[in-house]
Structures are given as C-alpha cells and as structure tokens.
C-alpha cells in the first residue's frame, strides 16, 4: 500500500475499522492497541530523586505497531484521535513525541461519537497538537507515577509485616476500607423491636389499608393498648382529606458513574462489564463517548430527541421548552452525557445492534441508554396524591394513595422510584367507613445493607474518590486481589481485607483517609488545569510513604527464623525484634535445595509439557521455582476448566476468567482458601 497523505491514530482496532469506513481511502486509520507505553512491569521505573518516570514500549506487538505507524507518518498529516480523557490524551501525547520529527503536521482530533457527520467535522476543525492542553498529560503522569510509588513501596512492606501477599493502592485501599467499615457496622448492629398498627377499611367494595399516625410505635404496651381499644370498633370516621398534584421530573441523561450504578441495579452487570459493553457500543457508533462526568446534551442532539418524541409519542409528551441539564463541575460540561447517536425507535436500535454483530447484553445496555436519553427530554409525570386521616375511638389513622393522571416520561422510563399506588375510593369529610380488620405487627430495625458494586461506585463518587475512567478498574482490582467476594449482588470483605485495613489504619492511615484521597484527586484536577505541578503531587505522596514508624517483624518471618535457628542450633533471642538482622540470619541459613515435593511436581510437569528439566535446576530452590512457573504457563495453554470450576466463577460474577485458565485457577485457589478460614 502506498503512503496515505493523512493518518488517523486511535486506540482500538475495532474503532479504527469503523472510522476507516467513514473516512475512506484518502486516510489510513491505525490503532495503538491501548496503552503502548507504560512503566516497566518488573521494577519501580521511577527515579525517586527527581521522580522522573521510565516509560517503555509494552510488548513486541506494540513495537511492530509503532514502526508501522512511523513509516506511514513520514511527511504525512497526522491526526491523533485517541480517547477524549486523560488516559486517551496520554496515549496520544506519547504518540506525538514519537512522530513529531517525522510528520508534516500533527493535529488533535477528539471523537465523542463514531458517526460520519461528527467525525468529518472534528477532522476539519482539529487544532495543532502543540496547542492542546498538556496539563492532561501532566495529570496522567501524576496519577501513574504517584500510584506506582504507593504500590511499589507500600505493598512489599505490608506483605512482609502482615505476612502474606498484600497490595496497597492509593484509590483501591479506600474502596476496600468502605466495604470493611460497612461490614463492621452490620456486625455491631443490634436490632431493636418496634410495632406497626394498621387497619383494613372499605368503601364501595374497595378495601385499603390505613396506618396508626405514628408508623413506628416503640412502646409495646402502648401498641397493645391501642389495639385492644379499637378491636370492637366497626367504623372509622374521615376527619381530614388532602389532595395534591405531584409532578415528577425525568432524570438527567447518564454520566459514567450513574450508568454503572443503574446497570448494576437493573441488569446485574458489574461496572467492568458495563464499561466493556459501552466501549463496544461507542466504537460501533451507537452511543457517545462513555467516560464522562457531564449531563449536558448538545443542542443539535436535543433537537433530534424532541423531533423523535413528537413523532413517536405525540405532542402531549413534549415540553414547551427543551430541558437543560448542567453538571456541578462546570469543566465536565465540555463533554456530553452518554446518549444514543441514532434517534430511532427501540426495534431499530435492536436491529443496529444485530447488524454490528453485538450481543443481547449490548442491546440491554443500549436500551437503558436509549430510554434515559429520550425520557430526559419528555414531560413530567403527574400524580394526584390523596392523604386521608381517620378517627377510630379517638386514635388517628392515616392512608395515602396516588393516581397517575399523566404518565409523561414514565411511559418510556419507569425503572426506578416506583410511586405508591394504593387505590383509594372517593372520600367525604365526616363520612363513616367500615373497618374490616386490624393488625399489630412486631418488626425489627434492620442493619445497613452491604454495598453492591453500583452503590460502592456511588459512594466513591460522593466522596470524590476516583474518576469516571477509574471506577470499573477499582471494582475489578478489589475482586481480583481477593479483598471482596460477591454474595448475590452484594460485596463482602475477606479476612485479607480486614488484615490490610487494620494494618494501614495503624501505620499508613493517610492511604485509607477518604478526605486525603479526595484532596489528591482535586490536586490532579488542578494539575490538569495547569494550576499545580505533577511532581509536587508525587512528592507529597512519596514523603507520606517515608514517614511511617519503624518496620515491624511479621509473624511469618519470626516463625521461619525460629525454625531455622532450631535446625542449626543457633540462639537468636537478641535479634527477634530487629527485622534487618533477622533477614540477614534467614539469608545465611535458609535452605537452597528444593524440597522433595517441589522435585516431584517439577518432574510431573516435565512429563506433561516435554520441557527439559536439567540436574542443575533440580539442585537449586530458586531455579526450580522459576522452571515450575514457566512450565505451569506452558501447561495452562491446553488446560480446560471443569464445569464445577466454571459454576463457582459464574456464581461470584467472575465469568470474565472462564477463558483465562491461569488467572481463573489463581482466583479459585484464593477463593477456597478464604472459605476455609
């Protein structure tokens, strides 16, 4: 293929194919395949004297992709069109650095929807990359380097001092703390009884319930006294009637966080599943960009939604004026909310999903976005709410009933906040109604409920912890690392979560301090706006990691050292509380030969995989460990999970691991270990 005059760079191959179809043969659209540069996997990758990061090309695949793009970019007009958020901008910035000496010119294109009109407009108006906000890249650097420092410095210390494998994260650890704190609230909760007294009344063959005016009676004796006194009474007198018209407004369109919460509550999708499905819907041109804090919809889209409502629901569902929604954070409004891009009925939306080769789950999420988008521009729902007060033997009872007089937006989006719709007959003040029955129930106060992934996302957002692009990753991380398990849709902390949070609370309380984490997020926002420097952010975090009390000796380390001392006939009582000396002693006396069990395991793996197992490896504990890991990876390639293993994964919401046997087995082994505890 000859060199194209114009090159467009995006992140995903799927998106590249869609945009290529739109832009045609004058353009070459190439994908970076996600982040192609990152900090190295096996080392800190940050110089702690000046916080300079060392970014490396992630894989051979990425190296190959980069050299192809470099060739194409020579003397070409390049459009860097990676995602319109911090992470996307960072990928774009790395690419800009790679290409700026080769390309004729580099521009920044931000696609908020993959539709022909939008893409062509964006390409036409794309600014020079040099004129874009480099603060986005600085904010990315602050987050990435700061998080690396926290993880690389504190995780090994926590693992050593608690005993076991623990990971500490600037945002993941406060999320784990929320789950642990909630569980402790539930455990400490002492239920108390209360009493509910109700009567069944009837008029014109319409029975309905009225409750004693104090809905919760704390005093059992009082509840029983009223119950006895009204028992023989056969009538109730209407003493007061109030009628009120209630208008209920539609909710604004989806932000990332609210989409994750709603999909979790309504469809039982985990946040990461929601984001994967939304990514596909975006890349296939069915919705706008799915990482956003904004509730704003563009004027052009509002016009199309209003025309759609008029045509498909009728003029009576269309408010006189378009509804305007704005975000608390004015910066967020530079973007749009998550909305549909094709203003067509739901049957047609389904057809589009099928044409793109997407799944039923994609359609379920698209239907939710479609309903919320259109409903946000529809008229309010109108209710007539009647409240009536009755007198029975001098005691007041109350009932409420609502009748919907106009369904408004609820004709389309009636998923949440169900109105109480008890049917009440027409009533007149002073009239007497028949009392059919009465009931006294003992109830108990309930503890707070456990977080679901959706409600945990809401709480993180409320506390200002994390950002739209990070919520799904946080949820995935705390599940993958074995800090929470799912019981139904609820999140329950594991023993490891309690151990980690108690340890951090004592030694590094700032890591799990909600307020500090929020301040750090705000600091990154200021970096993005070029009001603060990213290195200052990293410096503050680094200094915090250094300002802890003296290292302590873990139980595991102590027991191991005592075993070795007994074996070698050494007295180590004078160094038992000195971690440095204990480590030296362990290094000098630890066994370097593999155990019988290791040798037998290695031999069985050698038979299965055909990988050579030398005498040298069989003599050295470290070498045999490395050999076993390599052979296990090889064996994994042909490993098939059993139906029982798959069932456990599905029950715990980890179906994403079914095609990744190595990760699945690791997760299953930690799951069964936790169950034993």
TrEMBL record:
<dbReference type="Pfam" id="PF01751">
    <property type="entry name" value="Toprim"/>
</dbReference>
<dbReference type="InterPro" id="IPR013825">
    <property type="entry name" value="Topo_IA_cen_sub2"/>
</dbReference>
<dbReference type="InterPro" id="IPR000380">
    <property type="entry name" value="Topo_IA"/>
</dbReference>
<keyword id="KW-0799">Topoisomerase</keyword>
<feature type="site" description="Interaction with DNA">
    <location>
        <position position="143"/>
    </location>
</feature>
<comment type="function">
    <text>Releases the supercoiling and torsional tension of DNA, which is introduced during the DNA replication and transcription, by transiently cleaving and rejoining one strand of the DNA duplex. Introduces a single-strand break via transesterification at a target site in duplex DNA. The scissile phosphodiester is attacked by the catalytic tyrosine of the enzyme, resulting in the formation of a DNA-(5'-phosphotyrosyl)-enzyme intermediate and the expulsion of a 3'-OH DNA strand. The free DNA strand then undergoes passage around the unbroken strand, thus removing DNA supercoils.</text>
</comment>
<dbReference type="InterPro" id="IPR013826">
    <property type="entry name" value="Topo_IA_cen_sub3"/>
</dbReference>
<dbReference type="InterPro" id="IPR023405">
    <property type="entry name" value="Topo_IA_core_domain"/>
</dbReference>
<feature type="domain" description="Topo IA-type catalytic">
    <location>
        <begin position="133"/>
        <end position="549"/>
    </location>
</feature>
<dbReference type="InterPro" id="IPR003601">
    <property type="entry name" value="Topo_IA_2"/>
</dbReference>
<dbReference type="InterPro" id="IPR006171">
    <property type="entry name" value="TOPRIM_dom"/>
</dbReference>
<dbReference type="InterPro" id="IPR013824">
    <property type="entry name" value="Topo_IA_cen_sub1"/>
</dbReference>
<keyword id="KW-0479">Metal-binding</keyword>
<feature type="region of interest" description="Interaction with DNA">
    <location>
        <begin position="167"/>
        <end position="172"/>
    </location>
</feature>
<feature type="site" description="Interaction with DNA">
    <location>
        <position position="481"/>
    </location>
</feature>
<keyword id="KW-0238">DNA-binding</keyword>
<dbReference type="InterPro" id="IPR003602">
    <property type="entry name" value="Topo_IA_DNA-bd_dom"/>
</dbReference>
<keyword id="KW-0460">Magnesium</keyword>
<dbReference type="InterPro" id="IPR005733">
    <property type="entry name" value="TopoI_bac-type"/>
</dbReference>
<feature type="site" description="Interaction with DNA">
    <location>
        <position position="144"/>
    </location>
</feature>
<dbReference type="InterPro" id="IPR028612">
    <property type="entry name" value="Topoisom_1_IA"/>
</dbReference>
<keyword id="KW-0413">Isomerase</keyword>
<comment type="subunit">
    <text>Monomer.</text>
</comment>
<comment type="similarity">
    <text>Belongs to the type IA topoisomerase family.</text>
</comment>
<dbReference type="InterPro" id="IPR013497">
    <property type="entry name" value="Topo_IA_cen"/>
</dbReference>
<feature type="site" description="Interaction with DNA">
    <location>
        <position position="291"/>
    </location>
</feature>
<protein>
    <recommendedName>
        <fullName>DNA topoisomerase 1</fullName>
        <ecNumber>5.6.2.1</ecNumber>
    </recommendedName>
</protein>
<feature type="site" description="Interaction with DNA">
    <location>
        <position position="147"/>
    </location>
</feature>
<feature type="active site" description="O-(5'-phospho-DNA)-tyrosine intermediate">
    <location>
        <position position="289"/>
    </location>
</feature>
<feature type="domain" description="Toprim">
    <location>
        <begin position="5"/>
        <end position="114"/>
    </location>
</feature>
<feature type="site" description="Interaction with DNA">
    <location>
        <position position="152"/>
    </location>
</feature>
<feature type="site" description="Interaction with DNA">
    <location>
        <position position="35"/>
    </location>
</feature>
<dbReference type="Pfam" id="PF01131">
    <property type="entry name" value="Topoisom_bac"/>
</dbReference>
């Amino acid at each position: 293929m000859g060199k194209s005059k114009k090159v467009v760079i995006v992140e995903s191959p799927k998106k590249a194919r869609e945009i290529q179809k739109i832009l045609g043969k004058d353009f070459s659209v190439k994908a970076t395949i996600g982040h192609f540069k990152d900090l190295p996997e096996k080392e800190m990758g940050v110089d702690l004297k000046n916080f300079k990061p060392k970014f490396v090309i992630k894989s051979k695949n990425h190296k190959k992709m980069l050299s192809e793009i470099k060739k194409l970019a020579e003397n070409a007009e390049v459009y860097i069109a990676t995602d319109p958020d911090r992470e996307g901008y960072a990928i774009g910035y790395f690419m800009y650095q790679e290409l700026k000496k080769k390309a004729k010119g580099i521009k920044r294109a931000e696609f908020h929807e993959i539709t022909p009109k939008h893409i062509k407009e964006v390409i036409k108006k794309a600014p020079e990359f040099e004129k874009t906000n480099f603060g986005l890249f600085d904010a990315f650097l602050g987050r990435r380097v700061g998080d690396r420092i926290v993880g690389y410095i504190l995780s090994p210390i926590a693992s050593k001092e608690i005993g076991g494998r623990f990971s500490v994260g600037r945002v993941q650890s406060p999320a784990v703390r929320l789950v642990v704190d909630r569980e402790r609230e539930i455990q400490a909760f002492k239920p108390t009884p209360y009493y509910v007294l109700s009567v069944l009344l009837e008029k014109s063959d319409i029975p309905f319930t009225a409750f004693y005016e104090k809905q919760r009676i704390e005093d059992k004796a009082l509840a029983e006294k009223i119950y006895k006194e009204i028992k023989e009474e056969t009538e109730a007198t209407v003493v007061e009637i109030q009628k009120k018209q209630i208008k209920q407004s539609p909710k604004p369109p989806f932000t990332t966080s609210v989409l994750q919460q709603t999909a979790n509550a309504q469809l039982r999708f985990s946040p990461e599943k929601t984001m994967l499905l939304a990514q596909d819907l975006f890349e296939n041109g069915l919705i706008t960009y799915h990482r956003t804090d904004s509730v704003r919809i563009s004027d052009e889209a509002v016009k199309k939604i209003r025309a759609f409502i008029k045509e498909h629901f009728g003029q009576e569902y269309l408010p006189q004026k378009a509804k305007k929604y704005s975000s608390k954070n004015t910066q967020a409004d530079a973007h749009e909310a998550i909305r549909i891009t094709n203003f067509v009925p739901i049957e047609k939306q389904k057809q589009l999903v099928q044409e793109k080769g997407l799944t039923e789950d994609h359609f379920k999420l698209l239907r939710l976005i479609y309903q919320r988008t259109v409903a946000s521009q529809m008229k309010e729902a109108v209710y007539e709410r009647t409240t009536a007060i009755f007198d029975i033997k001098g005691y007041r009872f109350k009932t409420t009933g609502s009748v919907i007089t106009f369904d408004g937006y609820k004709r389309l989006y009636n998923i949440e906040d169900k109105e109480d719709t008890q049917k009440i007959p027409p009533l007149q003040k002073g009239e007497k109604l028949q009392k059919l029955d009465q009931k006294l129930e003992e109830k108990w106060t309930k503890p707070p409920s456990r977080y679901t992934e959706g409600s945990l996302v809401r709480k993180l957002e409320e506390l200002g912890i994390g950002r739209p692009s990070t919520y799904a990753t946080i949820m995935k991380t705390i599940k993958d690392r074995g800090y929470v398990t799912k019981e139904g849709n609820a999140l329950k902390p594991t023993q490891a979560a309690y151990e980690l949070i108690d340890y951090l609370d004592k030694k590094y309380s700032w890591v799990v301090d909600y307020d500090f984490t929020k301040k750090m997020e705000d600091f990154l926002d200021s970096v993005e706006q070029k009001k603060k420097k990213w290195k200052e952010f990293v410096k503050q975090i680094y200094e915090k990691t250094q300002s802890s009390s003296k290292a302590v000796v873990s139980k595991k380390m102590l027991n191991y050292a005592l075993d070795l001392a007994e074996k070698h006939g050494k007295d180590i009582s004078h160094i038992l509380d000195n971690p440095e000396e204990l480590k030296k002693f362990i290094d000098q006396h630890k066994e370097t030969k593999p155990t019988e069990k290791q040798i037998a395991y290695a031999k069985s793996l050698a038979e299965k995989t055909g990988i050579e197992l030398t005498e040298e490896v069989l003599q050295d504990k470290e070498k045999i460990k490395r050999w076993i890991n390599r052979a296990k990876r090889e064996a994994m390639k042909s490993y098939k999970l059993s139906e029982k293993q798959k069932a456990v994964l599905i029950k715990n919401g980890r179906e994403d691991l079914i095609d990744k046997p190595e990760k699945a087995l690791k997760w299953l082994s930690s799951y069964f270990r936790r169950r034993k505890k």
